[in-house]
What does this fold into?
Amino acid sequence: MTEHTLFTRIIEGEIPCYKLYENEHVFAFLDINPLSKGHTLLVSKEPAPSIDQLSPNSAAAVGKALPILSRAIKEATGAIAYNIIQNNGREAGMTVPHVHFHIIPKYVESKHTFAWEPKSLDATEAETIAEAIQLSLNE
It folds into this structure.
């Protein structure tokens, strides 16, 4: 049985929220602990704990909703840019085990960053990893 998460409770109206968007597959609302003004959560109504467990229909609906919401948030807030963040698994920073995307507006005065230090890709390792992934895709 799938866990009845905080997001399931919000979608079902058990917990109030500042709802922005909803259709058959997704639900979007303002994050109550925002990193910036307009920080939005786009949640799949399907209660999958990670994106690799999400059905193709739900994944497609999320993909369709992301640009719609991003445009609206940017226009409504005057943000100059935005980040879309999505974590899978507690070790990756996920705090609610239910597929969700953060749309985080960026302003001139914003201090948040999601930059990292890139490393070199070893050709031998890259070939091995690429082959393994390709084999998994073909199964």
Summary: The mean pLDDT is 94. The two ends are 26 Å apart (CA to CA). The first helix runs from residue 6 to 11. Residues 6-138 form a domain with the HIT family, subunit A fold (CATH 3.30.428.10).
